[in-house]
Amino acid sequence: MSLRALRHFVVVAEELHMHRAAERLHIAQPALSQQIKQLEQRLGVVLFSRANRRLTLTAAGEAFLHKTRLALEMADQAVLDAQRTARGEQGRLHLGYVSSAMYDSKLPGLLRRLRADWPGIELSLVQGDVQMLYEALLDLRLDIAIIRAPLASPPDALVVRPFVREKLCLALYQQHPLAGVGALNLASLRTDNWISLDDPQGTGLEQVFMDACRVAGFTPQVAQRINDVTSMISLVSAGVGVALVPLSARALRLDNVVYIDLQDRLAESELSMVYHRHIRSAVVRKVISLLNTAER
């Protein structure tokens, strides 16, 4: 039973006149009449009453018309869904990120654009550390991840692209003797307790911090390692220690925390976009393109 035959049945049911239905469908009336008879034979029911040279729907015809319209609507929607999915206008995107990726405006801005321009794309967001995000990408549980560099020897199956570069600053509690200074170098805090991210060895903001302290000529006294930047700054607020954080973290306006510019000429911190070489859908390809071309 073809969709064409079902569409022809609906037109005949709407017109209740074989000649008008044939004109509307741009086919010969005998061919249309034969098609309706074949449909009735296929179903084993009479769809139309032809008494007194008038065409009316039988009870079976009424029931079949209702379900046929629904079936045709679903078929039309299936075609649209397939076309939109092929164009990357709908589907699901699994996006992972380290906590500090949300402080910079670029990633939230792109998420807003996706929701506004392509409401058919369903976003599944996962926050995690570098190791967890790596594993999820390799297992194809994530499509894209935004991870803070440096990245320790990413697997060959993953592609790494620059996403955002930003400067670093210091987070101090207000009672700190140097909290009122306009700018500081790292060495001036060599005797302080520090809060650091607990990233896997050789990766992420912890490695940036350790490298910066080494260049400044000291080994930091790490009082606490923590899993996300928000918790780091909360511990600074509590007076547990000081921290080196991305400049975008200034968006976190916590009580008892001041942000101080750095005098040191440190390498900028970089967020990277990481995705599997095997791109599974047009949605993922579209979002990768957006992330690559978006303005800072």
UniProtKB/TrEMBL annotation:
Residue ranges constituting the HTH lysR-type domain according to the UniProt record: 1-58
Molecular function in Gene Ontology: DNA binding; DNA-binding transcription factor activity
Keyword Transcription: yes
Pfam assignment, any one: HTH_1
Keyword Disulfide bond on entry: no
Cross-referenced PROSITE patterns: HTH_LYSR (PS50931)
GO cellular-component term (any): protein-DNA complex
Alphabetical UniProt keywords: DNA-binding, Transcription, Transcription regulation
Stored PANTHER family: SMALL NEUTRAL PROTEASE REGULATORY PROTEIN (PTHR30346:SF30), TRANSCRIPTIONAL DUAL REGULATOR HCAR-RELATED (PTHR30346)
Family (UniProt): Belongs to the LysR transcriptional regulatory family.
Name recorded for this polypeptide: HTH lysR-type domain-containing protein
Organism: Klebsiella pneumoniae subsp. pneumoniae (strain HS11286)
